[in-house]
Sequence to fold (337 residues):
Amino acid sequence: MKKKLSINDIASQLNVAKSTISFILNGKAKEKRISDELAERVLKYVKEKGYKPNQLARSLSTGKTKMICLMVEKISDYFFSHIAFHLEVLAYKSGYKIIYCSTENDPDKTRELIQLFRDRHVDGYIITPPAGIESAIMELINDELPVVLFDRHFKSIDTDYVVLDNYQGTYNAVAHLADKKYRHIAFVTLQSEQLQMTDREAGYFDAVSKYELTPALLKIPFENDANTTAKNLTSFLNDHHEIDSIVFATNYLALSGVKAINDMRLQIPRDIGIIAFDDHEIFGLYNPTISAVAQPLEQMAIELFKILLDKLENKIPIKQLQQIVIPSKLVIRESTR
Fold:
């Protein structure tokens, strides 16, 4: 078996101090005033020899693993998977790698995962937090580990975060339906006390009140599968024949809603208009196409990574907070006449 090249071997072959080799490989040549000519000679040599540094040794030397933990509710979800994709591109360009995991909104699992990644010394965290992990988040911050929350945050603690203006997004959706002369607008949401969901619900009720309409609310258990949700929606519509339009609080609720509406032989938008919160590429393929409150995924990822990178590279102190609320965009399609 071919012997793996070490820093000692490189230093011996090039007759250069081991510490100088280490500084060059860790990107500190200019900081240590090492000549460009020597740095180029070392980098050319290691490239020719196919040298791969020991990641553990490098992390012990630099105090950085160049790893970022992304913890989301469910990585398979359209919203979270697309955020993950954009973050991975940004991280790679800056020399970082992303580790993904799903919390499934389980606070115990989330705490275990945070401890797991702390034990592996990841450099920073981007988290969509379930309720009940406030103390774990504060421990990260108090230990001066960069952490940015997204999609939701806690009013009880001061943290960096990037979130959507969920209230205004839902308000605008209801206002659009009301302006289109829909008068019995229902809201289908989750049984959740998470901030983004309560903000969407508040936006719905305030818009209904503004237009002097009667609210109709259905809350779906988070653990429901798609078929069970469709059955719940069918029962809801059978009990409320007056409903002429629905705002769905998530895209996957809207997908189940379309199934329920089709199963009932109702036509969109003739019999019922719909708007989904969180756009989905499939909404543009449906017949008719589905109107949606769109979150600017790439912009959210850019803001998230910028906040984290500024703290990873000590451009901003850990406890100097950056809190960004991004406006949504209402995408009008055929489902709202």
